[in-house]
Amino acid sequence: MTVTLEPLRRAHIPRCVEIERILFVGDGPWSASAFRSELDAGGHYVAAVTEDGALAGYAGLAIAGRQGDWETSVHTIGVDPEFQGRGVGTLLLRALLARADELRAPVFLEVRTDNERAIRLYERHGFDRVGVRRRYYRPSGADAYTMCRPPLGGAEAPDASRAEREEAG
Q1: What is the CATH number of the domain that holds 69?
Q2: Strands 3-7 and 107-112
Q3: pLDDT at 156
Q4: CA distances for 126 relative to 102, 121, 158, angstroms
């Protein structure tokens, strides 16, 4: 299976909402209006699209601050269950991290404390647990780890393009 990344567009939103309802059933999946608001806010949102045009996953990075003092936050990563375990989540995360690295910005995120697969993915990409948010997810009341990856840039930034192609192709 080969997927390519492209900017997330409004046309992707209905499928994003369907995937959200599958993945985050007990934790308030995003609505179409939430996705539209995020796109309108100007963050960095990407779609992983298969050769036949199916949306395999999506991810979004919020960017705050000003030049020289940027901060970023992973707002969402969702992979259709049919495509999980094939490197799509890694491809999406690396696309977000590449944008953060261009800005030389730290990256923050929240992840359910029981989502071991995602936690391992984030730790492999340089994230550390920096806190716990009790009852962060609604309506389930599940706890979340806050994780952070320090800013990278220039010569320090990893060249993930080869690994991305291998994992997703």
Answers
A1: 3.40.630.30
A2: unpaired
A3: 40
A4: 16, 9, 11
As a whole-number percent, the residues of the chain with pLDDT over 90 amount to 79
* Dist. CA 114–CA 160, nearest whole Å: 27
Residues in the chain: 169
Phi and psi at residue 77, to the nearest 5°? -140, 125
Domain count, the chain: 1
Residue 165 CA to residue 11 CA, distance in Å, equals: 25
Which residue has 């707002």 as its token pair? 75
What are the contacts of 41-47 at 24+ separation with CB within 8 A? 43/75, 44/96, 44/99, 45/7, 45/8, 46/5, 46/6, 46/7, 46/8, 46/92, 46/95, 46/96, 47/5, 47/6, 47/7, 47/8, 47/9, 47/12
Confidence category of residue 165, pLDDT binned at 50, 70, 90: very low
What's the order of all strands across the beta sheet hosting 107-112? 3-7, 44-50, 55-64, 71-79, 107-112, 144-149, 128-133
Parent domain of 157: 3-168
Average pLDDT over residues 126-148: 93
